Amino acid sequence: MDHVEELLSMDLKQSIKKKDRGAHKHKWAVLSMSSIPLIMTLGNSMFIPVLPTMEKKLAISSFQSSMIITVYSIVAIILIPLAGYLSDHIGRKKVIIPSLFIAGIGGFISGWAAWKMADAYWLILVGRAMQGVGAAGASPIVMPLVGDMFKNEKDVSSTLGIIETSNTFGKVLSPILGALLAGISWYLPFFSIPVFCVFSTLLMIFFVKAPKSQEKPIPFKQFFRNIKKTFTHNGKWLNAIFLIGAILMFVLFGVLFYLSEMLETSYDITGVKKGLVLAIPLGALCLTSFITGKIIKENKVLMKWIIFSGSILLGISVIVLSFSHMLWFLISLFLFCGIGIGSVLPCLDALITVGIEKEHRGTITAIYNSMRFIGVAAGPPVLAILMDKTGHLLFYILCGCSLLAACATFMAIKPDKEEPAHS
């Protein structure tokens, strides 16, 4: 009897050890995947505080300096759907790892040109375009990879919340890190990209074990027939999520541009200090994304109402911004903007990831990420025009966009109310 109890005790200990090892591997896999959106966000947003210095060093106009940011986004918007299709066809890691390599090479080319060449501008743009190619095949593919790796919807939602938190933390860190690196040398931010990409590539190689598909890739024509069928059955709520994602990024980067301009022109807050102030609303967005990812689990009805409520909160916060330009008032309202957007993003990520079949997931989430990139690219220039031409009307336009997102949520996203969250 004692011998049997001893064997049972040994089996129990081994089971606990296996479970601990599994949890340890899970944490490292999530950390590895989270590094990608963090690095891709740094790879673009980090250059925003450096643009005035680049204009002086390269003797270029403000429009030309803005193209250093824009070319990255435009290339990514065009190539993200192709990267999604390839990830469905040949595998997620087979797309992500070469994309990280391309992004790193692009950063090196831009940095070398800025360091060594007198007329470096056009080669810097070539390097930035290569970074856009890498960004298209890296960050957007993380979402479907999470859906592939975790079968439990609760784990998917929680992990996507961490991924979105990492993305947002990149936005928090970007202005601070960009200003610090540029303080050493204005071209150093370019050279930091290859270092980050090597780090993320090693993490992906050693810690992320993507499940292998047992099925052969289906022919190109059949694949697109299946995608068409997916939109036929799910088009209403998918299109709503695409629209909401684009609106949220448009409003977020628009209001960040507005706050950045106000800090410089009205309060003479620049450099690292400005980055720290911008980090306040982005920090709220980051924390809210993390908490939301933890609480939504697989409850799709809860996700819908969080999206609706977050969009309403965003709209109210934006319209109230028009009441005063006092610094504490601006920061307080932007804090609520961050909470509203931060609550919505993990819900959108979870709905679109768990609601689409695995073999089409990469393509559908890629379209969603393209729409988000369009919002990112459109926000600052549109706000610049509105600030110059319309005065307070810009707040009503942004509020209207936020309310449109709330209406799209209410009208088009209709999860099964009989599907409760599983405990």
Per CATH, the class reads: Mainly Alpha
Element-level helix/strand string: HHHHHHHHHHHHH
Instruction: Report mean pLDDT, rounded to a whole number.
Output: 83
Total tally of structural domains:
1
Helix content: over 70%
Please tell me the CATH architecture by its name: Up-down Bundle
Strand-pairing-aware structural class: mainly alpha
The major beta sheet can be summarized as: none
Q: CATH superfamily assignment?
A: MFS general substrate transporter like domains
Coarse morphology: globular
What percentage of amino acids are in beta strands? under 5%
Gyration radius, rounded: 22 Å
Through-space gap between termini: 37 Å
How many runs of DSSP E, i.e. beta strands?
A: 0
Number of helices: 13
Kindly identify the CATH topology: Growth Hormone, Chain: A
Low-confidence stretches: 417-423
Description:
The chain is an all-alpha fold and 423 residues long. The two termini are 37 Å apart. It is built from 13 helices and no strands. The protein is 85% helix and 0% strand. It has a single domain, classed as Growth Hormone, Chain: A (Up-down Bundle), CATH 1.20.1250.20. It is a multi-pass membrane protein. Keywords: Cell membrane, Membrane, Transmembrane, Transmembrane helix, Transport. One of its GO terms (cellular component) is plasma membrane. GO terms for molecular function: transmembrane transporter activity. Belongs to the major facilitator superfamily. TCR/Tet family.
